[in-house]
Amino acid sequence: MEIDTLKIAEITRKDFPLFNNQPVNKEKLIYLDHAATSQKPIKVIKALENYYSYTNANVHRGAHQLSAQATEAFESARSITANFLGAKSSNEIIFTRNATEAINLVARAWGDYELKEGDEILVSMMEHHSNLVPWQQLASRKGCHLKHVGITKSGELDLNDLKNKISHRTRLVSLVHISNTLGCCNPIGEITDLAHQYGALVLIDACQSLAHQHMNVNSLNIDFLAGSSHKLCGPTGIGFLWGREKLLNEMPPFLGGGEMIEEVFLDKSTWADLPHKFEAGTPAIGEAIGMGAAMQYLQEIGIDKIHSWEQHLTKYLFNKLKSIEGINVLGPDPEIKSNRACLATFYLKNIHSNDISELLDSKGICIRSGHHCCQPLHRYYGISATARASLSFTSTIEEIDYFIDELYSIIKFLKNNS
Ligand SMILES: Cc1ncc(COP(=O)(O)O)c(C=O)c1O
């Protein structure tokens, strides 16, 4: 499929039933909440439907053909995921429920066994709670210290602070690649080189990156990566951990039960090889197949084209937002920092973001309001909530114009009535 970058939205919107069918509050739907969860193209919906209609069976178990077909489709989704990430082997792909579970898996199966009292884990002030709470829990179980890298004035990771806080006691640097609130893109390659010099491992939370820019786990030289299918046009209920095969082999299982064993005796068990060692119980089979279809769909459009269109839209959105008096937008300006995520998190003094989002909703515009699972970051800025409009390759200039016009009127109305 060869697509002209400027026509990406026009062409791909047809693939999404929700954009074509669903009026919200009798208004046309303007979905600007892609960072919370992406919409699903028909290819993904069909992959789920086909699985449940024609090949539904449990995987890795049955001696019958249907089970063999389901297993083949499920394992093929693993190979697609490995290819999508540039992994060396599909053994390095562990299916989880979501990115949160992938991070918890590392905290439990690596952290509980490798860390000891006094060891340090480095995260940042901009982390999603998913990449913060598991490390707090680990630190409290093991007597480790959690250190937080600060934010610069422009709303980016403070690399100097990172350099000051990393030490030979640091065992893991766990960072978000693209912040779901600031929208900044952290320089993973540089950070990984530094972390490895200190003997620390690097985990990257790639939830907000994988649908928007090309990522290759080997060229980034990282050790673990966590992702969620529903952020990249796939179904909910499935995510993945990528880890270096050697590390995963050395780690004990996370959860115990069926599927993850080699042999079970009454008093002890032995473990299956990778990746099954980490996949206890019946997995989300249809959802894994749907996620594979989503990754192929994104690859067919072309991740680089998606990236270019989204960069164009982001600059347009920011320029429009700048014209609204009193608005504060978090994170770097896309005119200065090119590799910025296609989302804008903003607030206005004396106006609650919930009021903005509720009034926008009455016009059919979906944005997110709240702390976006980044309470420490909001506390750092001294605000309890912000509004966030997030775009995707299906977003259009017309949608942004409509959103800005409505936002402008709503702010005027709220200011006059406060
Ligand atoms: C940056 C980031 N990390 C982690 C997550 C958690 O993803 P999930 O809830 O799918 O595990 C999200 C979801 O909002 C996110 O944006």
At a glance:
The protein has 418 residues and is of the alpha/beta class. Helix content is 41%, strand content 15%. β9 (261-264) and β10 form a beta hairpin.
What would you note in describing this structure?
With 418 residues, this protein is of the alpha/beta class. It folds into 2 domains: 5-37 and 302-416, Alpha-Beta Complex (Aspartate Aminotransferase, domain 1), CATH 3.90.1150; 85-282, Aspartate Aminotransferase, domain 2 (3-Layer(aba) Sandwich). Helices cover 41% and strands 15% of the residues. It has 15 helices and 15 strands. The strands form 4 sheets. It has a 7-stranded mixed sheet with strand order 2-8-7-6-5-3-4, sandwiched between helices. Helix 3 (42-55) packs antiparallel against helix 11 (285-301), helix 5 (99-114) packs parallel to helix 6 (133-142) and helix 12 runs parallel beside helix 15 (397-416). It binds pyridoxal-5'-phosphate.
Tags for this entry?
single chain, 418 residues, alpha/beta, Aspartate Aminotransferase, domain 1, Aspartate Aminotransferase, domain 2, 2 domains, 7-stranded mixed β-sheet, 4-stranded antiparallel β-sheet, 15 helices, 41% helix, 15% strand, binds pyridoxal-5'-phosphate
